[in-house]
Design goal:
- It is a single chain.
- A hairpin with a 5-residue loop joins strand 9 and strand 10.
- The chain is an all-beta fold.
- It is built from no helices and eleven strands.
- The strands form two sheets. Strands 2, 4, 5, 6, 9, 10 and 11 form a seven-stranded mixed sheet that branches.
Length: 119
């Protein structure tokens, strides 16, 4: 069965750090671009960071640029999001997404992990 399982969320104080992980199984991970999305209360789901299948290119939302870093291991079948200098506005459910622009076009989503930034 195809699975994307996020972990590493939790409660952290403003200015703190968290590292999210997403473990993939059931598909050829190295063929897929990976990304992290988030959805806060009453907000639309938004792209946070993305990385190409080989890890050669990344891009970030302006709101997290310079604070968050996305990376991946195709050996471990995992993608990571290092989150530093966290703000209350970063509070959201964070989702891992796999995206293959091949035949057929395929998207998989994880179930999400809660990140709460509060004192």
């Amino acid at each position: 069965q195809v699975q994307l399982v996020e972990s590493g969320g939790g409660l952290v104080q403003p200015g703190g750090s968290l590292r999210l992980s997403c473990q993939a199984s059931g598909f050829t991970f190295s063929w897929y671009d990976m990304s992290w999305y988030r959805q806060g209360p009453e907000n639309e789901r938004e792209l946070v960071a993305a990385i190409t299948s080989g890890g050669s290119s990344t891009n970030y939302a302006d709101s997290v640029k310079g604070r968050f870093t996305i990376s991946r291991s195709n050996v471990k079948k995992e993608v990571y999001l290092q989150m530093n200098s966290l703000k209350a506005e970063d509070t959201a459910v964070y989702y891992c997404k796999a995206d293959r622009a091949g035949w057929p076009y395929t998207i998989y989503w994880g179930q999400g992990t809660q990140v709460t930034v509060s004192s």
